[in-house]
Amino acid sequence: IFYGATSGKKMQWDESADQLIVDGRLDMNGNVDISGDLVVNGDNVTFQSANADDPIVTIKNTSNDTNDMAQLKFVKDRGAAPAAGTNLAEIYFVGEDSAQNEQEYGRILCEIDVATQGQESGRLKFGVANEDGGNGYGLILTGGNANDVVDVVVGYGAASTTTVAGDLTTTGDVVMMANLPTSDPSNAGQLWNDSNTLKISAG
């Protein structure tokens, strides 16, 4: 056992378990190869580099099989039955503003929509900072209330704009357009409702 200057800090090799026990901080300069599983019970893991376009985190699968792949898995285990709305995982994209304050610019959130056994459905949200720095979810996918149904919400707030480049094909039989102007908006290509007749403004 090697004891440090601070009480309770030590490094110990456990021969019975063939493992190295470190109570305290471990600084390593150089490469570290780990052939077994790695379990980290701390709260934070930070990869830091001053080099351009670094650090890079690579998860690599070398199996010669069509269906084998690398995986990134987030698990939420409450130790009890979960409820609807339980957050499962979040990914944040953070930078700075012009005053060098830390600012979140993007977020991906996955949560439970329905937790009832046999009816499980999820919700995946994609959000960005919108004008005042607050996060708004502009794309939301929800498992729906029936099998083989995924509901999608696009845009955040009534003033949001959705642009489709190319053709738009719908395979359903209902297209709903609410709150159309009831007089010609004089905006070329905009739809308007002329006494329950759908028209396209010539501008």
Structure description:
- The chain contains no helices and ten strands.
- It has 203 residues and is an all-beta fold.
- The protein has a five-stranded antiparallel β-sheet, with no helix packed on it.
- It is elongated.
- The mean pLDDT is 91.
Topology:
Blueprint: E1 2-3, E2 10-14, E3 19-23, E4 87-96, E5 102-114, E6 121-129, E7 135-142, E8 151-154, E9 191-194, E10 197-200
Antiparallel strand pairs: 1-2, 2-3, 4-5, 5-6, 6-7, 7-8, 9-10
Structural class: mainly beta
Largest sheet: 5 strands, antiparallel
What overall geometry do the principal axes of the alpha carbons give?
A: elongated
Largest beta sheet: strand ordering: 4-5-6-7-8
| Structure annotation, total helices | 0
Order of helices and strands: EEEEEEEEEE
Helix residue percentage: under 10%
Give the averaged pLDDT, no decimals.
91
Which stretches of 5+ consecutive residues score pLDDT under 50? none
Q: Summarize this, please?
A:
The protein is mainly beta and 203 residues long.
Key features?
mainly beta, 0% helix, elongated
